[in-house]
Amino acid sequence: MRVVVGENQALVREGILRVLERAGFEVAGVATDAPGVLRQVRTQRPDVLITDIRMPPDRTDDGLRAALEVRSAEPGIGVIVLSQFLEDRYAFELVGDHAEGVGYLLKEKVADPAVLVDAVRRVAAGDTALDPDVIARLVGRKRLGSPLDDLTPREHEVLALMAEGHSNIGIAEKLVVTVPAVERHVTGIFSKLGLNQAATSRHRRVLAVLRYLRG
Question: Which residue, 101, 98, 67, 71, is CA-closest to 83?
């Protein structure tokens, strides 16, 4: 698996590169500013892009803007953005209208190599890898007249874990229940949210996540 990394902080960048290489990923390119990120993606055609949100030249949301451009132009490339702070707006902009192949992680979590490696594998497979703290912040917003009001507390728990990118097996392990129990909850969620039975299970999961995040 080939990865391009965009990070202007040397210590953070070296840590990410070391984790990726030890996990067996190929670091196809490295950039220290947003224009460099776009150049590396165009020339290297990676499977996944990992980029900080705040990068030169402006050191505001340049990295996010580059990630959004990649998401629009190259939907087959998985994108993970790293943030030092919880930013609702950044998460919504990144997810956009589809949650496939996207990750949003807090930098403090990347200190755990397993978190980053798992996120890279998820987004490369077209799944989501959203930080649990980000999910908690987004779903904790006040909502009025949402179809999510019809979900049971357990269904809310299952949907939150779906939003983080967990499979049914992963959800079962987190909640210490059986996989068939999780499947029943997922079916109930799809039904209550009015998600088309004709759509694939994976597509319906993405739609459920988007409805959950947007409320």
Answer: 67
